[in-house]
Amino acid sequence: MSYRINPKSKRGWIELITGCMFAGKTEEFIRRLKRYQYAKQTVIVFKPEIDTRYSIEDVVSHSGIKIPAYSIKNSKEILEILNKNKNVDVIGVDEIQFLDLNIVDILNQVANKGIIVITNGLDKDFRNNPFQNVDRLLYEAEYVDKLSSICHSCGGNANRTQRIVNGVPAKKDEPLVAISGNDKYEARCRHCYIVPE
Ligand SMILES: [Zn+2]
């Protein structure tokens, strides 16, 4: 992993952890944030309210490690919460593709003020198209790590997310964001990924 910070550089930058589902993005996100907590740095974590997969107050990885987070509906709430909490060293923003389009500008403002921003998000949706916010952060962030997964069909290297509804690949016109009981997701390689029709 190409994660190198020059210790002489001024503080305040953006780190993006991206890739498909089941690549370990959330675990890597939590790991990076916890290092700052161990060093007694002030860390505040945010997550979009839409994501209630496991719990409301925590960001939880598939393997169960977690970190407490503010659930936010709107990216401006990050600035409101930071205004009430001075001396913040690091913020984390989970699942950035689910926040509104102002989030990238807000993260730039936060980083410009000297705060370290660590964020994660899917680079592509289930149609294999770029996901909002992550697309911009790929060039705005100082540090980008793209993690891959293992194909759930063949065991190869996967960088795509297949959405399965009632046992078959989701159609192209299904809503982009649906976290319901009938959906499941699989990591797929380019050969096993089926382009939604
Ligand atoms: Zn495969």
TrEMBL record:
Chemical reaction(s) catalysed: thymidine + ATP = dTMP + ADP + H(+)
Class of enzymatic activity (EC top level): transferase
Active-site annotation: 95 (proton acceptor)
Residues involved in ATP binding: 19-26, 94-97
GO cellular component, one term: cytosol
Documented EC number(s): 2.7.1.21
InterPro entries attached to this UniProt entry: P-loop_NTPase, Thymidine_kinase, Thymidine_kinase_CS
SUPFAM superfamilies: Glucocorticoid receptor-like (DNA-binding domain) (SSF57716), P-loop containing nucleoside triphosphate hydrolases (SSF52540)
Annotated Zn(2+) binding sites: 151, 154, 189, 192
MF annotations from Gene Ontology: ATP binding; thymidine kinase activity; zinc ion binding
Gene Ontology biological process terms from the UniProt entry: DNA biosynthetic process; thymidine metabolic process
Signal sequence bounds: none
Cytoplasm keyword on record: yes
The keyword DNA-binding appears for this protein: no
Summary of subunit composition and partner proteins: Homotetramer.
Family annotation (PANTHER family): THYMIDINE KINASE, THYMIDINE KINASE, CYTOSOLIC
Family, similarity comment: Belongs to the thymidine kinase family.
Entry protein name: Thymidine kinase
